[in-house]
């Protein structure tokens, strides 16, 4: 019984430490995004990104998924995109869209902006 209570306390602490993400549906298309602090991902370019979108694919529903991310500008144009993998403990802790966005933001060293 003590082990179960200890595990629940740890899980509660982990879930509380994740930042809640304000997800926004784009009014002109069907994509959902969150705001990030503006970045300039390409060296020497004036292109800036301030939106993050994510989609999962190749999810085995057990311990692994692939994530496709896009960093977009104000007009919805893709500035940069790529793939990440989530597996193991990260996959097991994934219980909400906020966790997924935080996971990607952390891997890419982005700051989510909920303003």
Characterise the protein shown here.
With 115 residues, this protein is an alpha+beta fold. It contains 3 helices and 5 strands; from the N terminus they run αβββββαα. The protein has a 5-stranded antiparallel beta sheet with strand order 1-2-3-4-5. The longest helix has 16 residues, at 2-17. The termini are far apart.
User: DSSP strand (E) fraction?
Assistant: 25-35%
End-to-end CA span: 42 Å
Mean pLDDT across all residues, rounded? 76
Largest sheet at a glance?
5 strands, antiparallel
Helix content: 25-40%
Radius of gyration: 16 Å
Q: Output the strand order for the largest sheet.
A: 1-2-3-4-5
Structural class: alpha+beta
Low-pLDDT stretches are: 1-17
Order of helices and strands: HEEEEEHH
Shape: globular
Tally of helical segments: 3
Q: How would you name the oligomeric state of the polypeptide chains in this document?
A: single chain
TL;DR?
By secondary structure, this protein is of the alpha+beta class. The protein contains 3 helices and 5 strands; from the N terminus they run αβββββαα. The model is unreliable at 1-17 (pLDDT under 50).
Relevant terms:
single chain, 115 residues, alpha+beta, five-stranded antiparallel beta sheet, 3 helices, 5 strands, globular, disordered N terminus
Topology:
Layout: H1 2-17, E1 24-25, E2 32-39, E3 49-57, E4 64-72, E5 78-87, H2 88-93, H3 97-108
